[in-house]
Amino acid sequence: MRTSRAGRAGQYAALLAYLVFLAFPFLWLVSTAFKPPRELASLHPTWIPKDPTLANFRQAFDEQPLLDAALNSLAAALGTAVVAVVLATPMAYVMARRRTRLARAATGWVVVSQAFPLVLVIIPLFLVLKNLRLIDSMTGLVMVYVVWALPFALWMLVGYVRAVPRELEEAAAVDGAGRLRTLVSVTAPLLAPGLVATALFAFVTAWNEFFFALVLLKTPEKQTLPVVLTHFIGAEGVADLGPLAAAAFLATLPSLVVFALIQRRITGGMLTGAVKS
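C-alpha cells predicted for Carbohydrate ABC transporter permease (277 residues):
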C-alpha cells in the first residue's frame, strides 16, 4: 500500500513538474506583454508587472500590419481545414472499411510521413510550386498545408469510422444505397464529432505554421501572422521585446481557444482508434 501511494505521489509530482514546464513560456510571455520598457530592462525581473501597461499592444499594431496578417492566417487556416476534411473523409472511410494492401500501404504512409523534416521537402516543394506558378500565392500555401495536415487527419478519422457499426451501412446497402450515398447519408452524420475535431486540428496547424509561409510567400501584404512576428526582431538580432511579446500573445490566443475546444475530441479519437471493431 505504501509503495502504491509513493508511486502515485511520484506520478503526480512528475505531472505537476511537466505542467509547470509547459506553462512557463506562456506565463512569461503574458507577463512581458504587459510590462513597460523600464521593467523589461530591469536586472531583477518579476513575474507580475509592477506597472502594467497596454502600450506594447498599441505599439505592436502601429509598427506591423498585424490585423492584415491575422486575416491572411485566418484565410489559410480555414481553407486548410475545409479542404483537409473533404479529402480525408472518403480516404479514411476506405482505409477503415477495406483491409487491402493499398489501405495498409496508405496507413504506412500516414506513419512514415510524420518522420520527414520540413527542410528535407522544402526545395522540391518549392520547385513544384514554381512550375505551377503558385509561389507567393495563398492557393499554393493552402495546398501545402493540406498535404501536411492530411496524415494526422486521416489517422484521426479512421478511428472514428471504425467506431461506426457496419450494420448501419449494411442496412443502407439493402435499401439500395451505394457506397457514396452510404458515406454521405449514413456514416458522415455519425462522424460529426470527428469531423469537427479534424477540422479544428487542421486549423490550428495552419494558423501556427511558420516555415512554409516564410519560404513561399514573398509579398509583404500576403504574409501570415507568424512571419510578421519576426519583423519585431531587428537586423542585428535585437528584439523589440515588449511589442513582440504583445503580438505573440495575441497570435497565441486563437490556438489556445481552439485547442481547449478540441482536446477532448482528440483524446476520444485516439481511444476510439485503439478499439477494434
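The chain has a mean pLDDT of 82.
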